[in-house]
Amino acid sequence: MELNNVKDGRVTDTQVLVVGAGPTGLALACDLARRGVHTLVVEQSDALFPGSRGKGLQPRTLEVLDDLGVVDAVIDAGGRAPVGMLWENGERRGEHDMFERPGPTEAAPYGEPWLLPQWRTQQILHGRLTELGGSVTFGTALTALTQDEDGVTAELTTGTVRAAYAVAADGGRSLVRRILGIPMTGESVDPAPMLVADVRIPALDRLNWHVFPGDGAAFLAVCPLPGTEDFQVTGRFSDGVPDISPEGVRELIAARTHLTADDVAEVRWSSDFRPRAALAERFREGRIFLAGDAAHVHSPAGGQGLNTSVQDAYNLGWKLGQVLLHGAPEELLDSYEEERLPVAAQMLGLSTRIHRGEARRGEATMQLGLGYRGGPLAAGSAGALEAGDRAPDGPLPDGRRIFDLLRGPHFTLLAVGTDAGLPSGDGAVVRCHRIDAYEPYGTGLFLVRPDGYIGWAGEDTAGLADWLRRAGAHGGLDLKRA
């Protein structure tokens, strides 16, 4: 597709149009930008989302953010989830940790969830996108979307855009999904409406996640947000529509805690919602993809929504890059839905069980065990791993780590504890490294995809060439010499 980038006229051509600048859209835009894919991100709001809503980043998402080059900023800006403190009749009744905290290991360097308000996560991703030469076009809404065999045409409030592909990252009420007529089915997780707000309460300590159980229907939680002076307040209502005005939020806190309305110095943001779990029937319609909340909507319990969404973007980005820049067959894009839809369904079920008290926030919520075994891009096994598994981290003799070898938009072929032959070439798309035998891998050859999962594994290179051709990653390599 020829790009002309006509801005003074009414048409601006791009390779990928991303609708929505939430965590999903920004993560995808960062991944595409570092690959050199021309991307237009449009956001109907005039600024980034202002609230804390998705405040928990799981260990696997931290690994994604490590690869995208922002994990240090995320760690510096956030903090550990505080231990819960139960209150009753204005008195502390004891601490209760809501999370299992296994701690970091050599293979998994991020050992627990990290709290960071969503608005700050988006600021960090937006800053990274700017560093990579990308941008967001704010105050621009989608009004219509059509496609043909050659591309997608989007009508925006600022004009017409022609793109090779489009990605709906426009949230649970996705206009793109509705235009496409893709059904979204699910269930109400809890019939009770909920309120969420960001407030400042100088009179309340920030050492705990304060929980006021009430009678169930009157549940209220107040969580300090690291790196800010704010608390996130979540409240459950038996019926009706929560009053999300500043006065309503103050009255709610005063009614359910030992605090007074005057103790709430500021209400910075508030919203209401009804917890539900819903999954789109499909994640792809021709040249248009659904990602994030546009494809799946979670209960906030367990912190799976934002994390699953960012990983949608991480899965899709490298595939779009391979098709657009490296001649990978169009069929590679089919694997996005084939891999991500089952994962989203699994995480939806987990979120619902946690919301209903049927499961605890633990190893499963950290998402390190998720993978694509048996999927369309998983071929072979070696040592301790099967294709589709997450590639573990680990130390190297020179002081670097395995993640340092993987970081970037390339594929990585690891020869672990083996003298098996490796292909030669320029390494622009596939980089080859030999390392010593390492228990989480065992020994063998492991082709790590750009999103950190094993695509192919074996004792020698038989079958590697076919896998690389399917992914458009064989250019510049002499596979005959392997």
UniProtKB/TrEMBL annotation:
User: What keywords would UniProt list here?
Assistant: Monooxygenase, Oxidoreductase
Question: What's this protein's name?
Answer: FAD-dependent monooxygenase
Q: Could you tell me which species this protein originates from?
A: Streptomyces achmelvichensis
